[in-house]
């Protein structure tokens, strides 16, 4: 426990890294971020339709959806407590504007076999559209389910943290549009300090708030932190976020070692078999 | 053109509304699964077959005597022919096939797909050279052709030894590639998939070569040696198949125990067991019954290699769709739900 508390609020983000702080306690679920993102990045619409489960008709991040507001109606919490017994907070609706996490060590970037996915001078992770050949390996390599292949152009797409706007000294479209400052843009370390202060403030009010995206929660297992991180008031699974994801590429070397061992064993077995092969009578 | 999204992961009938958000976000997937389908299944099977054939041909060349020449000959040809469709199958699977050469921009040691591209090129080169020398030795390039003469004089043992490393790599890296993703079924079995695919590659290649070297009396010893290797590989495969299912656990291993993928996985185990059993039983039967049973055993082993790749790839796709499986491998150690699993 003591080790974990020292990790809270710590990130391996490089100095000068830029990112998002998405404070779910301030989100009102207006989806202005989704709209602003679509508009600025000229993303085509998703199919119109109702999911029938909540006010969330977007459902998921995708090739043409780089911000996604999740709506969770807390009919009862994990322990089965009904709303009347829950904390009177946010009217029992949880809302989270999900986005690419721009991981400090990004699984998609390490997986990319073409070098199309790069880390920019703002320490954000961007897929270069003139390089990507749509192999799709980044898609399952992301522990958060962010990149996706577009059926429109066959390439992988995800949030660019508005690289073009950053180049011009503007903040990303979603944070610019957010009317409550639930999405804040800035240097990661400054945002992390702000997040820690905010969590302390919320806890003083009796809200079980926590940071998602530091080395204790979300940025675990070699990921080293998320440059786009969140303040949550429920377990991450409630928001469809993994609590302790792992950088998939951590498994590459051990897996190659076991494969090499198996190759050695099978190779030796084959050699010995052929070496000791005896003359057999015709059958 | 836009993909129609289906919302099929709602709560089970009879469950209360609160169940929708109790264990997951309305049952929606946490991660995105891969788009890989049949072309990748076929590539995995053919890559295994090619790698296994090259290994067998090399081993036969290095330690086998004159009796092993059929293995060398057929193995070298098969290794090259089986790998030929590989790049094609991979390229048609790309979202932008005309950009396939972008794979050649970089070498990334932590990306199994990048390594795989270079490994595939290396393997194809060695397999081509080996097959070319074999063709020269078989007189297909003409007896007096100076190029054929040069090829025949190349050191065959060195060529054989040089092909083993890329051959093992080609047969096994696909397991590492699957393991280095966030897909629960593959991530949980990252250490086992490479060895499993290797065993399956060797058993299928041995089965295929045993079928191809022919039934003549001069080939009996070669066929026997191949069948022994096949049995060793099948045994390893059976052990690993069991280890994968047990290691996955009830939640992550769901695609291996029910549904179409579950049937495919059960079929893999059955065919490995049946092929191994047939080889053992055959020895106790009268001689005239042996050849047809051996034929069946080899065909069953080949079918098993195909079922294994299909079960793993489609099973992985299904496990990526299952939020419970993702949460099973990403819960924090102190989470009570993780201990309960």
What's the short story on this structure?
The complex is a heterodimer of chains A (283) and B (341). Chain A is an alpha+beta fold and 283 residues long. Chain A has helices at 2-7, 32-41, 107-111, 138-141, 163-167, 173-177, 188-204, 252-275; strands at 18-23, 67-73, 93-99, 117-119, 125-127, 148-149, 156-157, 183-187, 210-212, 228-232.
| Distance between the first and last residues' Cα of chain B | 41 Å
- Number of domain modules of chain A: 1
Q: What characterizes the major β-sheet of chain A?
A: 4 strands, mixed
Spans where pLDDT lies below 50 across 5 or more residues of chain A: none
What share of the residues of chain A does DSSP label as strand, in percent?
A: 15-25%
Q: In CATH's first tier, which class of chain B applies?
A: Mainly Alpha
Strand order of the largest sheet of chain A: 8-1-10-9
Instruction: Give the second-level CATH assignment, the architecture of chain A.
Output: 2-Layer Sandwich
Ranges of chain B with pLDDT <50 over ≥5 residues?
none
Which radius of gyration of chain B do the C-alpha atoms yield?
23 Å
Quantity of strands of chain B, as a count: 0
CATH architecture of chain B: Up-down Bundle
CATH topology of chain B, by name, is Formate dehydrogenase/DMSO reductase fold
Return the structural class of chain A. Answer: alpha+beta
Q: So what's the overall shape of chain A?
A: globular
Give the number of domains of chain B.
1
* CATH fold category name of chain A: Alpha-Beta Plaits
State the total count of DSSP E strands of chain A: 10
